[in-house]
Amino acid sequence: MRIWVDADACPVVIKDILYRAANRVGVQLTLVANKALRTPPSPHIRTVQVCPGFDVADHYIVSALESGDLVVTADIPLAAEVVARDGLALNPRGELYTSANVRQLLDLRNFMDELRASGVQTGGPARLSNSDRQVFANQLDRLLAQRSGR
């Protein structure tokens, strides 16, 4: 398993959790972004800077993804592609996207886009809470433990 991060919008606190996990278990962590990123020095952590543009980072991740890889993203269309390619997708709040829930989440996202396009103010996502951070860290630990057979 490798871990890919849709890093342009990934919260710093989530990246920090991922850095520690990559070093702790020795898993390859790759952050993909449209801009240069600073990461701690580690043989397990690397960055890929892609050209600016709509979904360029997403396309890079999908093209490099292998079955069983984990992608950390809040981007539901990307998560749907990852799940369709037999990957795992986890959002920064710790919700695991699955074949059972990703279609419904994608439909809801598209509906909200239609509402916003028609002028309805829907607001954005709530701030990432300490509880969200803990749920993410716990879910990541479960996935990494499954990978190692613990």
Strand order of the largest sheet: 3-2-1-4-5-6
Dominant shape: globular
Query: Helix tally?
Result: 5
Beta strand count: 6
Uncertain parts: none
Ends apart, CA distance between termini:
15 Å
Keywords, separated by commas or semicolons:
globular; 6 strands; alpha/beta; 150 residues
3D architecture notes:
The protein is of the alpha/beta class. The protein has 5 helices and 6 strands, in the order E-H-E-E-H-E-H-E-E-H-H. A 6-stranded mixed β-sheet has the order 3-2-1-4-5-6, with helices on both faces. Helix 3 runs antiparallel to helix 4 (102-117). The longest helix has 19 residues, at 130-148. It is globular and about 50 Å long. The two termini are 15 Å apart.
Q: Summary?
A:
This protein is α/β, with parallel strands linked by helices and 150 residues long.
Topology summary:
Elements: E1 3-6, H1 12-25, E2 29-33, E3 45-49, H2 56-64, E4 70-72, H3 76-84, E5 88-90, E6 96-97, H4 102-117, H5 130-148
Parallel strand pairs: 1-2, 1-4, 2-3, 4-5
Antiparallel strand pairs: 5-6
